[in-house]
Design a protein that fits this description.
The longest helix is centred in the first third of the chain and has 29 residues, at about 5-30. The protein has two domains: about 5-80, Arc Repressor Mutant, subunit A, CATH 1.10.10.10; about 85-225, GntR ligand-binding domain-like (Four Helix Bundle (Hemerythrin (Met), subunit A)), CATH 1.20.120. Strand 2 and strand 3 form a beta hairpin. It has helices at about 5-30, 40-50, 55-65, 85-105, 110-125, 130-145, 155-175, 180-195, 200-220; strands at about 40, 70, 75-80. Strands 1-3-2 form a three-stranded antiparallel β-sheet. The protein contains nine helices and three strands. Helix 1 packs across helix 3 and helix 2 crosses helix 3 (about 55-65). With about 230 residues, the chain is mainly alpha-helical. Residues about 1-10 have low confidence and may be disordered. Keywords: DNA-binding, Transcription, Transcription regulation. It comes from Microbacterium terregens. This is GntR family transcriptional regulator.
């Protein structure tokens, strides 16, 4: 194998390791294992994943691009924090953009995919009293509803917005009372019913209200945000 081939193989391995590390940290941030403001040390990641500093830096660069990590030159990296105003702005974006993504997706969802959404909505209703279970199934439900969309930028942007607000949404959902959960469950079923009827405008309307309600409740919970 030539020197150039060896170099390409090394880059490929670093890229694979970097993607694996980024995926693990991303999942940890979304799941709440890495709360906002948590210090992320490159040497700890390198030791944990048995990797060199190169893929670790690649992973942190990717997560910084996604808005999940803040990297300060010669200082280190931290899980990004949002202020209440920043989180509200992200939810304003989601409130307007996710219905558009659903509009792109809806005509391409098969009967089997809509049935999968119905099954997920039922599972959320049955098992959604547990915060971790609710958040995992809710994310699965909404991202599955967008699966029919083929967009160059919007889908990736929506997933990024979901990821950046995940820690705060977790704190909010954990404080829910029974009525809040019931309304969320009903809205999931209404979205499915609208998709089954081919009523995309109704599905968009319910989804926008679903997101708006979360935004308004988050605004009433300033204690979970950074100063």
């Amino acid at each position: 194998m030539s020197v150039d081939e060896n170099t390409e193989v090394g880059r490929s391995r670093d890229g694979d390791a970097g993607a694996r590390i980024a995926h693990s940290i991303r999942e940890g941030i979304v799941s709440g294992s890495y709360p906002p403001g948590t210090r992320i040390r490159q040497e700890d990641l390198a030791s944990r994943f048995g990797a060199s500093r190169v893929p670790v830096r690649q992973a942190l660069q990717q997560l910084e691009y996604e808005g999940l990590v803040t990297v300060v030159a010669n200082a280190g990296a931290w899980v990004s924090s949002l202020t209440l105003a920043e989180c509200e702005e992200v939810y304003q974006m989601r409130e307007r953009l996710e219905p558009l993504l659903l509009r792109y997706s809806a005509p391409h969802l098969s009967a089997q995919e809509i049935q999968k959404l119905a099954d997920l909505a039922r599972r959320i209703t049955v098992d959604g009293a547990d915060t971790d279970t609710f958040l995992a199934l809710d994310r699965q439900f909404h991202l599955a509803s967008y699966a029919g969309a083929h967009t160059s930028q919007l889908g990736d942007l929506i997933q990024k917005l979901w990821n950046t607000t995940a820690p705060y949404r977790r704190a909010y959902v954990a404080s829910w009372e029974a009525d809040s959960r019931r309304i969320a469950h009903e809205e999931h079923h209404l979205i499915v019913a609208a998709l089954r009827d081919g009523d995309v405008e109704e599905a968009e309307r319910v989804l926008a209200g679903h997101i708006r309600r979360t935004r308004r409740q988050l605004v009433k919970s300033p204690q979970i945000f950074a100063d």
